[in-house]
Write a structure and sequence with these properties.
Blueprint: E1 11-17, H1 23-37, E2 41-46, E3 52-55, E4 61-64, H2 73-80, E5 86-90, E6 103-107, E7 120-125, H3 126-136, H4 142-154, H5 167-181
Parallel strand pairs: 1-5, 1-6, 2-5, 6-7
Antiparallel strand pairs: 2-3, 3-4
Helix pairs in contact: 1-3, 1-4
């Protein structure tokens, strides 16, 4: 939604799950996936002491020493970085006022979803994400890529982009090819 100055608010995605389910890991993986896709992404985390920590697309940080409600986050982010298009919010409960915030929920064995079905963008097995992250690290592939594509399509209204090959990836592939040609 554009504001009077014409700057749109970042799209808000709530990252939900039980403690230890992999929410922070998913935020890291999604941030990297969207960076590869050219989508400027920020995150906001509510700490146990009530403070809110923003991580900007340029890796800068801002901490507010007070609780911030879920619906305040996009406006605050715009004042910190108006170019951010996506905001991943971790540590926020389902709004009690009935507001449906697009949500990605991490599931643990024996724990079902707590998010209303109309708000779910995707669900993800936290243990599977951890195993994949341990094998490949944060990159735009696998489970994180599937979730990023769902967000890009359902929330941003865009056709999911394929990940461009970066110079580093291309360089590594060329070195491997040279090794096998010998």
């Amino acid at each position: 939604m554009p504001e009077p100055d014409g700057t749109p608010l970042a799209a808000l995605i709530r990252i939900a799950g039980a403690p230890g389910s992999g929410k922070s890991l998913l935020v890291t993986a999604l941030t990297e996936a969207f960076r590869h896709r050219g989508v400027r992404t920020a995150s906001a985390t509510r700490r146990p002491d009530g403070a809110t920590v923003f991580v900007m697309p340029n890796s800068g940080r801002a901490t507010l020493d007070r609780p911030v409600t879920l619906d305040e986050l996009p406006t605050l982010l715009r004042s910190l970085d108006p170019s951010a298009r996506l905001l991943l919010a971790e540590g926020y409960q389902t709004p009690q006022d009935g507001l449906l915030v697009p949500t990605v929920e991490l599931l643990m064995w024996g724990v079902g979803t707590a998010t209303p079905p109309a708000a779910l963008v995707a669900t993800l097995d936290g243990a599977a994400l951890l195993r994949q992250f341990q094998r490949t690290g944060p990159q735009d592939s696998g489970l994180a890529a599937e979730v990023a594509s769902a967000i890009q399509e359902k929330v941003l209204g865009e056709t999911p982009a394929t990940t461009p090959v970066t110079r580093a990836t291309k360089g590594i592939a060329e070195r491997i090819n040279r090794l096998f040609r010998r």
